[in-house]
Amino acid sequence: MGPDRALNLLDAMLWNAAIIAGPVMLATLAVGLIVSIFQVATQIQEITLSYVPKIIAAMILLIAMGPWMIARLTSFARALYLTIPSLAG
After folding, report:
1. How many domains does the chain fold into?
2. Residue 25: pLDDT above 90?
3. Percent share of the chain, pLDDT over 70
4. Are the C-beta atoms of 87 and 1 separated by less than 8 Å?
5. What is the average pLDDT score of the chain?
6. What is the dihedral of CA 33, 34, 38, 43, to 10 degrees?
7. Per-residue H/E/C for the chain
8. 35 and 55 in contact (C-beta within 8 Å)?
9. Are 13 and 73 contacting, i.e. CB atoms less than 8 angstroms apart?
10. Per-residue pLDDT tens for 38-61?
11. Which domain holds residue 28?
């Protein structure tokens, strides 16, 4: 396997990881921003107030988008396993 092939596989892996993790990360970022704005507006400085809504948002998104995430990850892994014979030659 040449270095260009290895870099292409690494690039595909990183893009798949970003696409799979992106929605959950963006949702927790948005919820954290909304909670922070709420805390600044009401002057409630409770540290644990920001964790619970983020955990709930992440849990809801993982339940809703879990099958899509698993399908995407499985198809990438399957494609990677199918390319193993061509890597040796």
Report:
1. 1
2. yes
3. 99
4. yes
5. 91
6. -10
7. CCHHHHHHHHHHHHHHHHHHHHHHHHHHHHHHHHHHHHHHHHCCCCHHHCHHHHHHHHHHHHHHHHHHHHHHHHHHHHHHHHCHHHHHC
8. no
9. no
10. 988 988 888 788 889 999 999 999
11. 3-88
